[in-house]
Amino acid sequence: MQTATQLEHEVNYLDYKGKYKGIFAWIFSTDHKRIALLYMYSMLTMFVVGVVLGLAMKLELIAPGKTIMDPGTYNAVFTVHGVIMIFMIVIPGLPAVFGNFMLPIMIGAKDVAFPKINLLSWYFYVLGAVLVIASVLFGNGAPDTGWTFYAPYSFKTGTNLLPAIFGAFVLGFSSILTGLNFIVTIHRMRAPGMTWFKMPLFPWSLYGTAWIQLLATPVVGITLVLVALERIFNIGVFDPALGGDPILYQHLFWIYSHPAVYVMILPAMGAISEIIPTFSQKHIFGYRAIIVSTLAIAFVGYFVWGHHMFTSGMSGTAQYTFSILTFIVAIPSAIKVFNWISTMHKGSINPEAPFLWAVTFIFVFMIGGFSGLVLGALATNVHVHDTAFVVAHFHFIVFGGVGFAFFGAIHYWFPKMFGRMYDKVWAKVGWAFFTVGFLTLYSPMFYLGMMGMPRRYYDYLPEFHAGNILSSLGSWVMTFGLLIVVINLFRSAKNGAIAEINPWNSKTLEWTVPSPPPLENYDEIPVYGEKDGPYEY
Amino acid sequence: MENEKHHIVPYKVYIYILVALVAMTFLSIGITKINLGEYSVLGAMIFANLKSVLVLTWFMHLKFDQPFLRIMVGFVVLVFFAVIFITFLDYYYR
Q1: Of B76, B83, B89, the CB nearest to A317
Q2: Contact A212/A260 with Cβ under 8 angstroms?
Q3: Are A80 and A46 in contact (CB under 8 A)?
Q4: B86 touches chain A (CB under 8 A)
Q5: Cβ(A169)–Cβ(A258) under 8 Å?
């Protein structure tokens, strides 16, 4: 018995042979690390589709008039691009992959609290993704309402909207179950001695995120059901012709979808809070301030949804309230940036790939954040609302924020996850191309939006041509960088040099277990002493 | 788990709660017949909230759970009321 138990702990999670074989050993596995990789590969598949659609849009916009697609197709392409990228990539993003993989190990647990529910949440993810893809391939054409499914488009359009709505609804269940699992895991399964204020910052960010997932996601679920009922039975909740209110839809949608932005960004910030102290070899500056700012973002983030609706006909009172709250939510974000910079100050900086991604995250996130204040101010919002400026802001925050943090996190935790090190030179080359491409792709959109180019149009006036050419060129450079990064990681996962247990000299618990970790992470649950802490350099 | 107390609620109580829930469902429908103007939503919300309090307290055993869980649920209810309040800053002042 003793030998069998030891064996289970000696074999890493990638090589472990359990009850099932082949692909079934993965899709029936309740191990949090395997589920994390299932999420990662599923998300990568959807990400490829989303990137191809994004490239197609940029190619269409390389010249005025029709280039490669007609207006209807363009509407469908930006809708499906948005639905895939938002609901299947950036919302599950870091929690589903790195949360699932790292959370139990970082808090000294053998798995999450509900492993079977964890696997179920991945099945919901796959089902949701299949439904959205089905809406593209079958029926009366792909949805063309935009990823927000705004009323009245969503019940007037003749396209195949119902499967997409139902897909987003099912994806919501995946998110709720993950959030529930993380809350219970963090409350009940921390290692002995790991008090709340000794917990690393990535689990803290997952905790704040999990509450948003749990509380806000049901709102969008119900809202999408109401849209479906409106389409099928004309119940008149959102249709003004039947006494409904389309602005109510916007309220309900954004009550979820704005907090969802924090579902995306909080874990990203958590990962950055792990990377910066490790590669500065210094205690994180303002540990408690980062925790408080995480919870403040999660809390205040619930009450700012109306800044998406300043021009939709809301009352002036609501507009002022939402504008003030939006400015307030910027404060905790700024606290975090201050803390990261202060952590680096006089640190022993090691500019490896994860660090480069992390500092670039701070740079693009700041640009996204400041442009968010332009949108949060009532007067300037009227000027740039529904222009390319919004697209630039949104991509700087969501893709810049989540994307850079995700790539930072994968380069940081890769040696732990796969037990091998990637090629460090190619990792930096990939980062450089990606960053230059990213800035070239999205920066011109700020200018184009300020000059009045509307978003979601397949055509534009000749004066916007130069900016769009630059933007399209940027999309190619960024994709080239992305290919380098992905190929480097895939090759290294198989053929990279064997990684040390703690190649970055980090202090958090995941670096104390073998690489890759064994099936249940720990032979014995670690005990945190009084002087132990996640950032005691 | 062995140390946790399991409070057994008599069936009678569950039936009272069920009857109260059904009665309040009819009342929340009935109140729509009265023209309360801008307060009609408030009327519906009061009954919906009372019903959820009954379900949480008795059916979901919050009454017999640790105070910590009651605090957590209380916090969630607070967030919910704040969301409703802010939403109605639009509707009542439009």
Answers
A1: B89
A2: yes
A3: no
A4: yes
A5: no
Note whether B68 contacts A: Cβ–Cβ < 8 A. Answer: no
Start-to-end C-alpha separation, chain A: 40
Contact A181, A115 (CB under 8 A): no
Please tell me which of the candidates B83, B90, B91 has its beta carbon nearest to residue A302: B83
Q: Chain B partners of A255 at a C-beta cutoff of 8 Å?
A: 83, 87
- Write the pLDDT tens digit of every residue in A41-84: 999 999 999 999 999 999 999 999 999 999 999 999 999 999 99
Residue located via tokens 């009454």: B63
Contacts of B76 in chain A (CB under 8 A): 215
- Kindly report the length of chain B: 94
CB-nearest partner of B90 from A302, A303, A315: A315
CB contacts, 8 Å: A306 with chain B:
86, 90
| CATH numbers and ranges of domains, chain A | 26-512 (1.20.210.10)
Instruction: Tell me the pLDDT tens digit for each residue of A200-258.
Output: 999 999 999 999 999 899 999 999 999 999 999 999 999 999 989 999 999 999 999 99
Decide if pLDDT at A484 tops 70.
Answer: yes
- With an 8 Å Cβ cutoff, is A240 touching chain B? no
Quickly tell me which residue has 């975090």 as its tokens. A336
Check residue B6 and give its pLDDT: 67
Q: Which helix (H) or strand (E) holds A497?
A: strand A497-498
CB contact under 8 A, B87 and A255: yes
Per-residue pLDDT reduced to its tens digit, A14-30: 988 888 888 999 999 99
Helix (H, G, I), strand (E, B) or coil at A12: strand
Contact A303 B92 (CB under 8 A): no
Percent of chain A surpassing pLDDT 90: 89
Amino acid identity of residue A177, one-letter, is L
User: Cβ separation of B93 and A316 shorter than 8 Å?
Assistant: yes
- The conformational region for residue B52 under phi > 0 = left, psi -120 to 50 = alpha, else beta, is alpha
pTM over 0.90? The answer is yes
Are the C-beta atoms of A449 and A390 separated by less than 8 Å?
yes
Structure confidence at residue A9 (pLDDT): 59
* Residues whose CB falls within 8 Å of the CB of residue B46, separated by 6 or more in sequence, listed in order: none
Helix orientation angle between A161-188 and A71-83, rounded to the nearest 10 degrees: 20
Whether A315 and B76 lie within 8 Å, measured CB to CB: no
B92: closest chain A residue by CA: A315
pLDDT in tens, A3-15: 334 445 578 999 8
Please list every residue in chain A whose beta carbon sits closer than 8 Å to the beta carbon of residue B94. 313-315, 318
Residue type, A267: P
Mark yes or no for CB contact B87/A247 under 8 Å: no
Give the C-alpha separation, A166 to A224, whole Å. Answer: 8
Residue contact B90–A255, C-beta within 8 A: no
Contacts of A259 in chain B (CB under 8 A): none
CA-wise closest residue to A469 among A34, A141, A60, A73: A60
Cβ contacts of B92 within 8 Å, gap of 6 or more:
A315, B38
Per DSSP (E only), the strands in A49-142 are: none
Look at B83 and A315 and tell me if their CB atoms are within 8 Å: no
